[in-house]
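Reopening: C-alpha cells for the (2S)-amino(carbamoylamino)ethanoic acid complex, inputs below.
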Amino acid sequence: MTGETPTSRGTLGRGYTVVTPANHYPSRLPEYGDQPVVKLVTPRLAPSRIGEYLVSLAPEGGTVRSVEAGFETFFYGLDGSAVLLAEGTAHPLGAGAFAYLPSWSSYDIRAGATAARILIVKRRHEPHSGSDAPGALAGHRADEPFAETAVPGFTRRELLPVADPGWDFNMSLLRFAPGVGLDKIEVHDEEHGLYMTEGGGTYILGEDAHEVVVGDFIYMAPYCPQGFTAGVAGPAEYLLYKDVWRDGF
Ligand code: UGY
Ligand code: MN
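Re-run output (same inputs, fresh job):
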C-alpha cells in the first residue's frame, strides 16, 4: 500500500479499548515458539488486572515448553481442535469447549489435525478467607442451555460457578436476539474483557458508540459506562470476563 493510511475501527478510548482482527499485530511468547499470540489486553494497560490472549496453533502444533504455574487461567476454544494437558488430565479444547486451571497448575496445549484458535484469560488468584480456592474445571458451551434473563431475547450461559465466593471471576456467554440489548447503561467497579463470538451490534463505551462484529475484542476498565444493542441482521453473542466477589482493595 503506498500513500494511503489504513483506516481502522480499533481504538484506545477513555476507560476502554476496541481491538479488531484488522488491528492484530501478533507477538511471540516462549511457550508458543513462532505461533502467533495476540495480546488483546494485559496489565500493561492500566488498570487491567488480566491478560487476555488469542493463541493460534498450527495443525499438530502446541506449546513448545510447558506454561509454568502461578496464575489461574481460563481457556475457550474458538475453532479447530486442541487438547489441554494439566496435572495428568487431558481436557478437550475444540470449538465451544472451555477449561479453568487453578494457579498451582502448569500446562501444555496441543492442536489436532487442523489449526486451532484459543482464547486464554490469565490473572492472579485473589483468595477469600473462608472460601476454598477452586480446582480445575472443564466443560462445553452446549452442556447446559442458555438461561433466560429479565430481558426477552437476552439469554446467558455461565461457564464458571457464579454462587461460590471462592471464584474471583465469571466467564459468561451473553446472547441477544436481533435488535435486543442490555436494559441499561451499566457503570460498575468490575472490569471486563469481551470477545464477540457471533454477529454484531452497537457498543456504548463511555460517551462513544462503536459498531462491533464477530472477532472484535473490548477491554472495559472499572466504571466504564457500557451498553449494547444487537444489530437487526441476526443474533449476537459475546464471551465476557468479569471479576466478582471481591471488594476492590
Ligand atoms: O454482567 C455484566 O456486567 C454485563 N451485563 N456487562 C456487559 O455485558 N457489558
Ligand atoms: Mn458489565
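The domain at 141-243 is CATH 2.60.120.10 (Jelly Rolls). The pocket of manganese (II) ion (ligand 2) is lined by residues 186, 188, 192, 226 (CB under 6 Å). Marking as resolved unless the reporter disagrees.
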